[in-house]
Amino acid sequence: MRNDPFFRTYSPRQEAMSRVSQSQQEAMTRPASTGTVSELMDQYIVREEPYYRTVADEVELYEAAYSVRMPMMLKGPTGCGKTRFVEYMAWKLKKPLITVACNEDMTASDLVGRYLLDANGTRWQDGPLAVAARHGAICYLDEVVEARQDTIVVIHPLTDARRQLPLEKKGELVEAHPDFQIVISYNPGYQSLMKDLKQSTKQRFGGLDFNYPEHEVEAEIVAHESGVSIDVAKNLVHIGERARNLKGHGLDEGLSTRMLIYAGSLITKGVAPLAACRVALVRPITDDPDMRDALDSAVTTYF
Ligand SMILES: Nc1ncnc2c1ncn2[C@@H]1O[C@H](COP(=O)(O)OP(=O)(O)O)[C@@H](O)[C@H]1O
Ligand SMILES: [Mg+2]
């Protein structure tokens, strides 16, 4: 699950830095040669194999892309496995993974770093992008269209042959570590004109398409993640497929695999299937009474 303790997520503006201990902050600002680097990167190593059900040839393609350190863009609707895939690939490639949940308040300094004031004066604090570039992690910018365009351009020099990150305020040019790679995710159906990536950004990335897996595979994932039987999982997937057919006919987004897993988890906890589906599937995605009734009746067809 996303909130497994072994995945550390940077959430800029959510007191991310204040959650980093003093000693870690010091480690981040120390030069790379003091031997504390592996200690620093240690917290970003994915230790246990994340459960990831391969859907097509995405694992081989990603491995090839990583071997040439191609920046990658994972495209697909919310809740279809993009984040889980990166976690799995970081584990498989044995590379540290630094995840940044993008939002519109995020600034370039949140990514790159800033001077902090403390009792001894000011000291530089690398941001997550600088930490990843300096020490060789995979830097995953999750839901990148949420960030403002002027923030996103700071990744440009890292995504071409230069592989450099200028820390302008500090007057330092960081040469990316050979292991460094940048990965972004975004939901193509979701962006508006205001919130699309610039072509000059898009064209720096290789792209992998993600979507809801086909019936049997999605049922297998739902059963594994929620603990319901495969038959119950298949019914949940049927409901998901019904709802996905309503996308564009009153629903903005289809039901995600994540939502089906939530419903399954409630059923595993003993909640009656009808109530579980109402809470986890129907109520969250629509406020429209007719649509709600249509989805509720789809649920009663299967449970
Ligand atoms: N191919 C897959 N293998 C394993 N789990 C998956 C897969 N696809 C989706 N999931 C499950 O769905 C949940 C949501 O996926 P996530 O990666 O968070 O979606 P996204 O990042 O695309 O919004 C995950 O926590 C995981 O439980
Ligand atoms: Mg995600």
Task: For the structure shown, list the relevant keywords.
303 residues; 2 domains; two-stranded antiparallel sheet; 6-stranded parallel β-sheet; 14 helices; Rossmann fold; disordered N terminus; 15% strand; alpha/beta; binds adenosine-5'-diphosphate; single chain; binds magnesium ion; 10 strands; elongated
Question: What can you see in these coordinates?
Answer:
By secondary structure, this protein is of the alpha/beta class. It folds into two domains: 9-209, Rossmann fold, CATH 3.40.50; 215-302. The chain is built from 14 helices and ten strands. The protein has helices spanning 16-19, 22-29, 37-42, 58-67, 82-93, 108-112, 128-135, 149-152, 199-202, 215-226, 230-245, 257-268, 273-285, 289-302, and strands at 9-10, 72-75, 97-101, 113-118, 121-126, 138-142, 164-167, 172-175, 181-186, 206-209. It has a six-stranded parallel beta sheet with strand order 1-3-6-9-2-10, sandwiched between helices. Helix 10 crosses helix 11 (230-245), helix 10 packs across helix 12 (257-268) and helix 13 packs antiparallel against helix 14. It is elongated, with a radius of gyration of 21 Å. Mean pLDDT is 88; it is low at 1-8, 11-24 and 30-34. The site of magnesium ion has 4 residues, from helix 5.
